[in-house]
Amino acid sequence: MNPCLLIPIYDHKDEIRGVLDELAPYQLRCFVIDDGSNSETRAVLDAAEKDHPWVEVYHRDRNGGRGAALATGYRLAHERGFSHAIQLDADGQHDGADVPRFIDAISDDPDALILGTPVFDDSVPRGRLYGRQLSRAMVWAATLSLEVSDPLCGFRAIPLAATTRLLSETDLGDHMEFDPNLVIQLHWAGIPVRNLPTRVVYNPGGLSHFDMVADNVRLSGVYSSALFGMLVRSPGWLLDKIKPRARS
Question: DSSP per residue over 23-39, as a string?
Fold first, then answer.
């Protein structure tokens, strides 16, 4: 087991230093994937890389979306020989103190996808909370399973071999649809899912790149396609469930 940290970033110059400072005690290699940020954010990242030898910043030429940045990070980490990427967001919403808990979860089940299950406080916007519940229901229907507690949380531990193999075979999207699509596709590929409760906060005035129109359209497309895919897969799934009973 050889885990690293992975943080995608686009213009979160005011939060990223605090996120990295919180992760400093673990001294894990941390890949920060800059998805075409502005010059001010790039300067902050370059300074952070100089101050923290365990941080490596990869600058993408242009903004391609969250999914594109994550795919870049997964491939980079896998090429460098890491087995897992513990992924966090750059906006300070996630509790870096939970990194050891994710490492323990990887140790207990190295083949699994470890998903953070958000434990929200009163800072969570109601609209975001209701949207997450809808996403959960869609993923449950698409996987015929209640195994996934939250398909959207950006704090997760990614098994890199299985994920990079999937990326070479499947287009998961370049934007906010990437996270739930990855969960669905890995579940379909037989990767076990484990859920880990973790504190998530919404900082007042925090910068969000979620486009309420475009990203909701993309998410709807992913869920519609996944539901159709499950209809195609369901006969085989039912047969697998029936076979053990027939043998017994």
Answer: HGGG---EEEEE-S--H
Rounded Cα gap, residues 35 and 209, in angstroms: 12
The H or E element that residue 3 is part of is strand 3-9
Q: pTM for this one?
A: 0.84
On whether the CB atoms of residues 84 and 3 are closer than 8 A, the answer is: yes
The CATH number for 19's domain is 3.90.550.10
The answer to whether residue 248 scores a pLDDT higher than 60 is no
Sign, CA torsion 113/149/87/198: negative
Residue 128: pLDDT over 90: no
What's the pLDDT tens digit per position in 90-123? 998 999 999 999 999 999 999 999 999 999 877 7
H or E segment to which residue 244 belongs? helix 214-247
Maximal C-alpha separation, the chain:
65
Cα separation, 201 vs 192, in Å, equals 27
Domains of the chain: total? 1
Give me the domain span that covers residue 178: 3-247
209: pLDDT confidence band, cut at 50, 70 and 90?
low
Distance CA 76, CA 5 (A): 12
Residues 45, 138: Cα–Cα separation, whole Å: 37
Beta-strand (E) ranges in 104-248? Answer: 113-120, 156-159, 193-200
The helix, strand and coil proportions of the chain, stated in percent and rounded to the nearest 5, come to 50, 15, 35
- Cβ(54)–Cβ(3) under 8 Å? no
Question: What are the pLDDT digits (tens) for 131-141?
Answer: 778 888 888 88
